[in-house]
Amino acid sequence: MRSVSACDVVKYVEVKSVLEKKLSERYNTPKRIHISNKMPQQDSPKKPVEPAKLCKRKFFERQPLLAYIALTFGLMLIVLMAEQGTEFFRASIIQAPSFDGTVMPIKQAPDWLMTGGKNDLNFSQYSAGTLIDIPKYDGKKLAARCEDEYGHPYTNACLTYTTVYMGNYHLDHKEFGGSHLAIDIRVPTGTPVYAVANGIVEIAESRVTGFGRYIVVRHDNVPLVGGGTDTLYSAYAHLSQVGTNEGVIVKKGDLIGYSGSSGISTTPHLHFQIDRSRAPFHPWWPFSSAEASNAKLNFYDGIDYGLGQDEAIKNTINPLEWVQHFLSYASDDRVSDPSKTPLPTNDNEVIVAVESFDLRSDKSTYITGDKLQLTVVAFDTKQNILRKYSGDNATLSVSNNQVVLPELKFEDGKATPSITLSSAGEYTFSIRDGKAIKALRIVVEQGEITSSPSGEVAITDNVEGDNVPVAVRLSSEDTFVFAGNHATIEVVALDKNGIVMQNLNYKGELAITVDGVGSVEPNSLKDRYFKNGVAKIDFSAGREIGAAKIALERFPQTNVEFQVIDKAEPVTKFEIELDGKFDTDKKETATIKTLDNKGNVTPTSFLGSATVSVASGSAKLDKTKLTSADFTNGVATLTFVPQDDKESIQLKIKSGALVGESKFARFEEASGSLFSDISQNNPNYEAIADLTQKNILNGNPDGTFRPDAGINRAEFAKVILLALGVDPQNPERTSFSDVKLDAWFAKFVEAAARMDIIKGYPNGNFGPANNINRAELFTMLYRAVKEQTGNGNNFADVPSDAWFAEAARFAKSKNLLDFGNSFEPSKVMTRAEVAEAVSRFLSL
User: Fold this and answer.
1) Which is more confidently placed, 231 or 41?
2) What angle do CA 407, 412, 415 make, to 5 degrees?
């Protein structure tokens, strides 16, 4: 290596000055962005020479024109690189480094004891004397010490690590007390955030919700605490500024952003988590809003009650435990380069590792409704196509979660998946297998589509001839059509006996009507359009969202209906429909639907598979597993054969937190009732049978149900928790003076109180023996879902400022009971009414 000249020093200083200036202008943080002044050491010259003169003598004086051009071009290149950030510059000159240890994501935090614990200043406003090195994270000490009086030596750690790994929002600092899979590091806005290890930036995004501004860095083949290796993904969320770009290579300790409170955040902090490679996406989260809603929990309650904790433990690691463990990384701990490890082979299989991918699209511009043809090619280290590459570990992903991706099938080293682009926007597709990754970004524009006015009839129906259809049958494979897309309608001509007409012969045209949005082509059917009695109509969904009903003017009762949507809402639950009766040893059909949070059928796919089981009774199912592929437009069917006529049959479907249960089907020749004092003609019979079969509300030992009797508050506390699927533990203390710990209902009352379903009376009592009235019962149901009902009409006997007014409006809007004209808030609820209200509540 040559020695460093004074000319090199001059050039370095000039480049450093330009970079610092451009970065300061970009990030508006001139006091914090500095480039290291470290230069390779050299021996001092015997005779001091001014560096500028030395540089000038050696180059500028000998080649002035060439030097000027080179210097100008070099500075332009440097400025361009600086505009793209230091990471862009760095990525262009170095390769992805292997693992060489870790650093903390935050280096300094305020001394909260000196600042009074407040977090209302920007990091730049803190003086050096008020900043300390970030405290060590110790889960055991946090749980043991953070309840001590303010001012103890561990206070700074308690105030810095507000939410621990697998913690909750109760601020009790207890790991595994919830399902918060990250560690929240409480620091001021603008605190520098650093990459904890060498890696590649996979995501650098800015959103107004969720994680807000966040970064995900991939760390390939790194060691784990306790042994083994994995590819990890560190995530840094709620940032005020993102200081890097996707695809950039970063080293441990590189500045990648600044902390903040963007997205869903109540205070400035850094959300820091590390996902394992098995997590399906990054940053991973233990449950969706739909799953929380389905479990009758809001976002914060889901964390506090540990929703999805088991999966969170599988898919993540304790981020600071891992970082702190590898701060001092010895050479004998280093991970061997997997590329140098021979691949296992046997006589039956050839195992190959992909080095890189090529990912291309069939054209450069798309409009909504187009099919995107991707081409994926796998290469080895010499850029030869891997002909025997199976693609078993390859993952194709896309930034828009509404896009349905097909399964990748590699043949001769290539895969050509075809994808429908249903909505306008920017899409980023990526293919990954181990270290090999390739991304492709495309833009889809909204197509120019015209629609006919609602209900317009294009041509008056005036048909006559020898062979005119007497009836028609209309059908389509689609129920939902994305805005800008098309659907095909099949029209079958029938004679008076319902037989398909082969040779139609008539004059005039059969007019087609469009009631709603969209248009059709053609807008009328001539006889020559029918081939073997079948004609095709193309339905074009315009930009307007809504329903469309297509029919022939001559046969208005036979139609096809579409729902034109701009996006498909996520699945929040399943619905199973049975016809209510069965006969043993004969096939019965169950219809299963995927529903959104409004109870409407949605065609959106759900992750993984759903398990179908017989929740009550005895029956053989033709399928026990369903995937999204089994659903067409959000509807699937399966058959079952009942085995026993003595028990009613109920089916259940479950996929994670997505569940659904059918109503009970009974043997069609069965007679009698579940209880001796209720006939099947009782208006509340189905609801009572529903809750009884679910073991939520039971009868009495003498075989009666006593439908007109009241139900007390303690009993209803148990009913509502069983309805919500909560199995509470025995409490350590109670919230009410009249609830003893050894009472049978104590665990239900206390759990309901923790969930804010029960609040008790102003005197501190719960009143467990008091019969529950309408105001109290519907208030508890309303609190269980916390659903806003707006300012709609309420009952005449419910003042707008009544404590139960919102609950009464909720009960009315959801039709939880047949109220009549009045709410009657003080009226005691009967057991039959309770069954009706809770059964309807569970069907929401």
Assistant:
1) 231
2) 30
